[in-house]
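Minutes, project check-in

Agenda point 3 was the complex the collaborators sent over. CS summarized: three entities, 1180 residues total, and the question is how they sit relative to each other. Sequences were read into the notes so everyone works from the same version.
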Amino acid sequence: MEEIIISVVQRTLVAGTPLLLGTIGEIISERSGILNLGVEGVMAVGAVTAFIVTHHTGNPWLGLCAAIVAGMLISMVHAFASVSLQSNQVVSGLALPMLGLGLAGLLGKPYVGKPLAIKINTMPIPFLSDIPIVGPVLFNQSPFFYLAILLAIGVWFMLEHTLLGIRIRSAGENPKATETQGVNVSRIRYLSVIAAGGFSAMAGAHLSTSYSRSWIEGMTAGRGWIVIALTIFALWNPLRAVFGAFLFGGIFVLQYMLQPLGISPNFLAMLPYLATLLVLLVGGLRDSRRLNAPAMLAEPYRRGER
Amino acid sequence: MKKIESLEMINISKSFQGVRANDNISMKVSSGEILGLLGENGAGKTTLMNILYGIYQPDTGEIRVNGQRIFIDSPKASIDHGIGMVHQHFMLVQNHTVIENIALGYAHAPKLFPQKKIRQRVVSFSEKFNFNIDPEKKVWQLSAGEQQRVEIVKALINGAGLLILDEPTSVLTPQETRDFFQVLGKMREDGQMIILISHKLDEIKRLCDRVTVLRKGQVVGHANAGQLDKRSLARMMIGRDVIFSFSREKIPRKEKVLEVADVRVDGDKGYPVVNGISFEVFRNEIFGIAGVSGNGQRELVEAITGLRMVTHGQIRINDIDITNQSPRKIHNTGVSHVPEERIRFGIAPNLFIYENAILKQHHQKKFSRRAFLAYGRIKAHTRQLIKDFQVATPSINVQTKNLSGGNIQKLILGREIADKPDLLVASHPTYGLDVGATEYLRNQLLKLRAEGGAVLLVSEDLEEIFELCDRIAVIFQGSFMGILESDDPRIADIGMMMAGTRDLKAGEGADASL
Amino acid sequence: MLHFKVSDREQISALGTFLTLVLALTAGMVAIGLLFIISGVNPFFAFKKIFSGSFGSLYGFKETITKAIPLILIGGGLAVVFKAKFWNIGAEGQLLMGAIFGTWVGLNWGPSLPAPVIVPLMFLAGFLGGAFWGLIPAILKLRFSINEVISTLMLNYICAEFLTLLIVGPWKSPKKFGFPYTDDLPDSAILSLLPGSRIHTATLIVAVVAVVVLTIVIYKTRFGYEVRVIGENPDAAKYAGIDFSRTTMLIMVISGGMAGLAGVGEVAGIHHYLSYPDSISSGYGFTAIIVAWLAKLNPIYVIFSGIFFAGILVGGDAIQISLGLPAATVAVFNGTLLIFLIMGDFFTKNKVRILAGERG
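CS then shared the predicted structure for the full assembly.
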């Protein structure tokens, strides 16, 4: 029994890691006022880039770096459309998943069915991983897991306790006031969207170089859309995102474990989306200010508007 | 960088879509001095100051600081030159704390832990001027006066040698205004340079060392405040003498149209802002509500027109109870409404003129056949409307946003009057319009009155109130301080009532504002 | 130093709009060509294949029309809700819900009813199913101010999982060799096809009639006027006594219902049974967003933009087979064209002047 629990929790953490990485990025973007629906596409680009670079260089870390760069580059498309062109963010946000998934499919075509010779393996932390139960669960994980946790804390700190964080949040709450304080809102928003792209790509790299060691079309499997849900579920707070990501990851893992008990895996798969709606519902019933949603989320902003 | 000691703006011009908001304006201010920038709404004061603050770029002209020409292409450049601005509509992030708002624009805010590290500075600034603001409170929890103080700290903490204040008292209660004047005095003693934008003569005369008067985008005069009396300032500002009384044919009041009985209304934040108001408006009458904006006028009007819930009391039109009915039902009982922010509420800017000319009336028989709109009749009606109300437009097939503010307002007023209402509710109908359009619209209101309509006029513009109204109610903090006949001698003391003094006896009251 | 000055265009001419559109599509094609080159595909060959596979041959054109049917239906509905600035991106889920409702009626009542009765009943059920699924986000927005982008997105997934739950569970057919499919619809519930094609004429007619009617509704009726006022300025709509809740719910009934009709068409016209969500709809609900956008939110233009994007879908299948390209190639097309359309839109609505030299 103990082993089963350990294994379930371990796999939950693995499943939750790419969700957490993507969500941290989406939180930054949305906090700056830009709804970025492109996560799924950017994840795919990250996954394929990491895979190709690792395949040719034999260095998965190089693959990760290349993925981040690629994710940032393709995210600039959304930044350009939503910030410079002030387009409707829903519509331009839908271009990115299409473009990203399509490009990833095209570029990855020659690599389908060729597993990597090397991948990013689990990295036990000395001493800590020897602690019974907690050790193998928390401290014998992929480096992506540790990275995701550290980044979540780091981004939370950045948003709450640094000047940059205040500027990002202000750009999402009241871009006009932010601009009059001498802050370049467009630049902040560009940076936030591009950073979000880096995070999504990291999540993709996790899928192709750590979670598995292969590339197949559609391997992101809707995780990018769960990230959008998770961002709201976490109420735009990276620390709550840690909790949410592993909760949603746990639901993934349980989907197939509980099937023999007569619980439909499809019903479990619905839960993250239902839970997100429920959070909005309960929050909306109480006090919408407590929800902490960026006030100007998805509203285009033009400088010097009269 | 050397502290800013003098600032000149030379031959500044700026146009918006062909309209000259600033036309060759020059002005100068030096330290230890309060310069008043006086002008009516729409005279170009705010545009000029937004140029100085880097929000707009001038089409021509130059700005000099301490005699050196400088270029201000963004608010940041402006801040770097020692200029700070407190906007009329506060530029604050409502969901953030006071200290986060201050850190946002503070040039020397540390990158890490800015909230903790600048707290002490904020507190000491706040103590210096007796501001008494809690730096940890969220801005939305603060009163208007407190928010203004946050804005002032924001500017001063950056070492602003020049502080621009745009209509600073328009949102303040009289008590807050008094405190604010004290703060200004103290800042002047400190050697601060201040530009005070206002259209309130009193304020300018009381506070300023020098005045520059704008009209229609041009400078019409400079003066030392001491040399001028209010009447001559007003003349410069408006371009003619302000006439304080009008002779109007008296029409006896008979038929009651609107009856408001002990009405209470909650504001956006959920607490009451109209506290038990009662009055009646009759046929052939213009009933004015005077007062500083933000005292419940907007909510009262919204309650009467069905846009906001009434929590207590009753509203009747022609003896029919319309309390908390839908806007359409109320409109159908004979109520038209000229809303206060015309572009925000009165029109759909991207639709054609003829589509906007029937807004709110589109469901009426004359404009529709069953489920369909009768576009032929609608267009004919619109042509008549733009002719009758002198709306300047090349055609009715033009998107309404291409009209000037005055023409949009003529279109809206025309639309509402053409509906032959029993009651017309007009909020700030001439706000920001030029003199010609203003006079035209006022005459239309008088015409409606003569033809048997009842008008409820809400305005901040006392001249407008005096010119038009048969009776004047003064609103303060959600209550009427009294209702005066136009020939009531107490009218001279209306300023006192606007500041919260209730039911003056005739002749009482020390200073008659205006 | 270069910098840009952006301002509102005061007059937007129809010709200018059209030319910008053509220019945007051309530029998009060039960009797609570049992406092909990067991926090692000869772009001229690929474009030729796409064209011959979609419009250049009779077979291809029939397939194009087949795929245009759901795009026109959904795109027409979306044009209406988008006009009111209600961002329904849940058409995919509404389509599936329509398919579920329609299939239930077909399976249960089909055997005992003749075609002229059961087919309209199935369409009605599909419309109701889609409308029901579309009403939920409308109510969530009106009652609890939940952003419709989020809720429609969530409801897509919830519906897809619900459909899967049905076909692997209670609705699973014993006759399909263990595959998660429902039984075949009875013959009376299957739509007749245009001979030699997969074009289910009944749905095609419904689609074309629906967008014509919607165009009249939007531009000629009181209701359409109210929808447009809400979209242009919700504050003015409230001032004008327009019932925001009622209008929003109605347009979501229309938009969801149209997607539901598309769902019935796909099941009763092409598949004949319910199977996995991705095989019932190959992303029609999302592609239709671009279709509506390209049609400038005018329902009648949706016919043309729907056929255009259907052509890309079919042509994409063609190059997938002949060039061995992955299925996602079509997505590159859609994504890139969408971006260029957005750019075109920007230049239609704004004047952009490039100013050289010093600022000020």
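Noted in discussion: Residues 163 and 381 of chain B are 51 Å apart (CA to CA).
Follow-up: revisit at the next meeting once the mutant set is ready.
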